[in-house]
Amino acid sequence: MVGEFNLIEKYFVARQHPRKDVVLAAGDDCALVKAPNDVAIAISTDTLVAGTHFLVDANPAWVAHKALASNISDLVAMGATPAWVSLALTMPEVDEAWLEPFCTAFFELADYYGIQLVGGDTTKGPLSITLTVHGLVDANNALRRDGAKVGDWVFVTGNLGDSRAGLDVILNPDLCHRPHAQTLEKAHYLSTPRVLVGQALLDFATSSIDLSDGLISDIKHILHRSDVGVSIDIAKLPTSEHLELFLNDPTLAKQYALSSGEEYELCFTVPDELKENLDSRLAHCGVKVTCIGQIRSKGVFDIHYSGQPIEWEVSGYDHFK
Amino acid sequence: MVGEFNLIEKYFVARQHPRKDVVLAAGDDCALVKAPNDVAIAISTDTLVAGTHFLVDANPAWVAHKALASNISDLVAMGATPAWVSLALTMPEVDEAWLEPFCTAFFELADYYGIQLVGGDTTKGPLSITLTVHGLVDANNALRRDGAKVGDWVFVTGNLGDSRAGLDVILNPDLCHRPHAQTLEKAHYLSTPRVLVGQALLDFATSSIDLSDGLISDIKHILHRSDVGVSIDIAKLPTSEHLELFLNDPTLAKQYALSSGEEYELCFTVPDELKENLDSRLAHCGVKVTCIGQIRSKGVFDIHYSGQPIEWEVSGYDHFK
Predict the structure, then answer these.
(1) Which residue of B has its CA nearest to A321?
(2) 3-state secondary structure chain B
(3) Is B29 on the interface with A (CB under 8 A)?
(4) A-proximal residues of B, 191-230, CB under 8 Å
(5) Confidence band (pLDDT; 50, 70, 90) for B2?
(6) Chain B touched by A32 (CB under 8 Å)
(7) Partner residues linked to B296 by β-bridges
(8) A208, pLDDT greater than 50
(9) What is the mean pLDDT of chain B?
């Protein structure tokens, strides 16, 4: 067993390619970083708690990926470029068999996105991970939730619903014999932050949010902040073939797509006059985007299925409920 | 009971005087802040876990103070001016009787130090608090751990040992009848970050650290990073009258002063030629400073009592031990 200080030294210090804007990364009371002049810093914090956000016996590499990817996803939704992250790790005891794969996956993903660990804290207690991520973005162009206008088109990246189906498999092992159960379980943990899409949408999209609480919940934040309404065609929600085969129920697949949390795809709005240019704007990103609806006047919340009303109740995810 | 979103709205949004450098504080995927040109950002993260860093039934206002003050203390040790903080709060359930005093104390202290909450996360799980604080400092002048030179004098602010005595009272209620037990218990939670001292030491002190793990542990970080040794006279360690009356054992009081964790006083080194100017440099701070020793060559770790060797073992605090 190693103590707290050795733990930090052994697992966290000097594991990464250093960024030039990190003046001091570890070993002092604070890290010191420098942002380029006239660029804003985007900051976001998220906690993952064992038993709430992942099972205690979940693959530690997948937990690391989920923790970092979900945080980077918040930067993406602002169009920010990932820069620095701090990691607060609370564990019941120093478990090197857990730490080794956790750190390897964490630093692999961090290096991939060019985000550097600039400090953190290790404490004793029930397993949980809190990350604070920092990104860089032009403050005047940052993608916010409050810029959607009536007539803008609503898009999402990737497919929706896989994460919730994966959670079903995690919570109910009986489902693991269904088609693609393992793929979906993995999808729950291993989302891909859409960094290139976020950056490409700067100066183009009018609003943006990442899907962490479910499309139906998250889009309400855009509506609330932008003072608008929306019309969404559930028939257009993109779902994977894996999800469709796993559920074997087309309506249920759409329900999953609408409410699946921790999806970390991007939902954004584009003005009508730019809609045609979207494909060329995103051509280098290699990510599917799908138009699922349109912004309407404030008060309109029209969820339909190819123009037909739907008969089931829609709701998102709230950790405290 | 309110849900996660209402919780954030009700307790955390718009509770503070806004800073001009905060472009976007809450309600979006990230906060957006702007640092002045050519100034570095100091970042530090600390977690407080119920059962490890405070008792579950501890006064929530005191817990808030401890969490924020201990984090600001890391900024102080770099000479940084507090700017922004993010708060990740994990609770078993939404407990408004706990949240109200916690938030009131948190925002009172935040306003006092001019640090603005710029986002956070509320999650369900065992009670814990992770803060990431950000401060602003000239990167070339920041107080670091690695600048101590042989011959520099070692100083500490305030008194040492009270925090550990307070912890004794918290963990062993039988001690609450001893003199000043309540004062010491309060001292454990309600430390005062030495912001003015930290700033006054810029361009003056050669190294600095805040005392979170105990003087004997923390000073080793300066020695390690600066590649030097130290001589400390335990007789000179400043202790409060409260501590002396509580313990009623002068030697034990010095032991407490040497090893007391979570003290959040500042330990710093000053070159011989500046020693005489220290009092005038710190005159506006209203904080006692005491010279407790001198930096020696690498390898020297001389802890003595007015020149006499000491006979008891000295050690700091490690959460995982």
Answers:
(1) B3
(2) CCCHHHHHHHHHCCCCCCCCCEEECCCCCCEEECCCCCCEEEEEEEEEEECCCECCCCCHHHHHHHHHHHHHHHHHHCCCEEEEEEEEEEECCCCHHHHHHHHHHHHHHHHHHCCEEEEEEEEECCCEEEEEEEEEECCCCCCCCCCCCCCCEEEEECCCCHHHHHHHHHHCHHHHHCCCHHHHHHHHHCCCCCHHHHHHCCCCCCEEEECCCCHHHHHHHHHHHHCCEEEEEHHHCCCCHHHHHHHCCHHHHHHHHHHCCCCCCEEEEECHHHHHHHHHHCHHHCCCEEEEEEEECCCCEEEEECCEECCCCCCCCCCCC
(3) yes
(4) 208-210, 221, 225
(5) very low
(6) yes
(7) B229
(8) yes
(9) 92
| 3 state DSSP class of A110 | helix
- Closest Cβ opposite residue B33 in set A41, A53, A78: A41
B134 Cβ neighbours under 8 A, 6+ residues apart: A43, B33, B41, B42, B43, B75, B82, B83, B84, B85
Domain A4-137: assigned CATH number: 3.30.1330.10
pLDDT at A12: 76
Give me the architecture of the B153-309 domain, per CATH: Alpha-Beta Complex (3.90)
Q: Could you report the per-residue pLDDT of A57-99, keeping only the tens digit for each?
A: 999 999 999 999 999 999 999 999 999 999 999 999 989 999 9
For residue A289, what is the enclosing H or E element?
strand A289-296
**Per-residue model confidence as pLDDT tens digits over A96-109:** 999 999 999 999 99
Domain ranges of chain A: 4-137, 153-309
- At B181, which amino acid appears? A
Q: Are B72 and B166 in contact (CB under 8 A)?
A: no
Q: Which residues in A lie closer than 8 A to residue B71 (C-beta atoms)?
A: none
- Considering only CA atoms, which of A2, A6, A69, A80 is closest in space to residue A39? A80
Contact at 8 Å (CB) between B44 and B72? no
Burial zone of A222 (CB within 10 Å; 0-12 exposed, 13-18 middle, 19+ buried):
buried
Task: Check if B40 contacts A (Cβ < 8 Å).
Answer: yes
- What are the tokens at B301? 């770790």
Q: Using CA atoms, how far apart are residues A255 and A248, in angstroms rounded to an integer?
A: 13
Asked if the domains at A4-137 and A153-309 fall in one CATH topology, the answer is no
